[in-house]
Design goal:
Elements (H helix, E strand, L loop, with lengths): L1 H33 L8 H36 L20 H23 L7
Helix pairs in contact: 1-2
Length: 128
C-alpha cells in the first residue's frame, strides 16, 4: 500500500510541474495572440492547443490527487497504532504478607469485632 502511495505522490509531483510549465506556456501564447495580425488566422491555433493541453493536465492532476488522498486514507486505516499505557517493572514485587503477621492482624480484627459484639449485646441494668 505504501508503494502505491509513493508512486502516486511521484506522479502527482511530476504532473504538477508539467501543469505549471503548460500554464506559463499558455499565458505566453495568449500574449502573442494580443499582438497578432488579424490576417493570419493560424496564430490562434497555438494558443488553443496550449489551453487544451492545460485542461487535460488539470483533469489528470485532479484525478491523481483524488486517488492519492484515497490511498493515503486507506493506508492510515490499515496501519495499526499502538499505545503503551503502562510499562511493567521487572521483576515484579511480591506483595505477600508473612504468615505470623497475618495471624496477629487477623486476631486483632476478630478481637475488635468481638468487643463490638459484646458492647452491643450488653443489656442495660434495670433501676429499682
Amino acid at each position: 500500500m505504501r508503494v502505491n502511495v509513493n508512486r502516486l505522490q511521484n506522479r502527482a509531483d511530476s504532473i504538477g510541474r508539467l501543469l505549471n510549465r503548460k500554464t506559463y506556456a499558455a499565458a505566453g501564447a495568449n500574449a502573442i495572440m494580443l499582438d497578432a495580425n488579424p490576417a493570419f488566422a493560424t496564430l490562434g491555433v497555438g494558443a488553443e492547443l496550449q489551453e487544451r493541453d492545460k485542461r487535460v493536465l488539470q483533469t489528470i492532476y485532479s484525478e491523481i490527487i483524488k486517488n492519492l488522498e484515497v490511498s493515503r486514507s486507506m493506508l492510515m486505516q490499515e496501519t495499526p497504532t499502538f499505545q503503551i499505557v503502562d510499562e511493567p517493572e521487572m521483576p515484579l514485587k511480591k506483595n505477600k504478607m508473612r504468615y505470623s503477621m497475618g495471624i496477629v492482624l487477623g486476631g486483632l480484627v476478630i478481637g475488635a469485632f468481638y468487643c463490638l459484639f459484646l458492647l452491643i449485646k450488653r443489656k442495660p441494668e434495670s433501676q429499682v
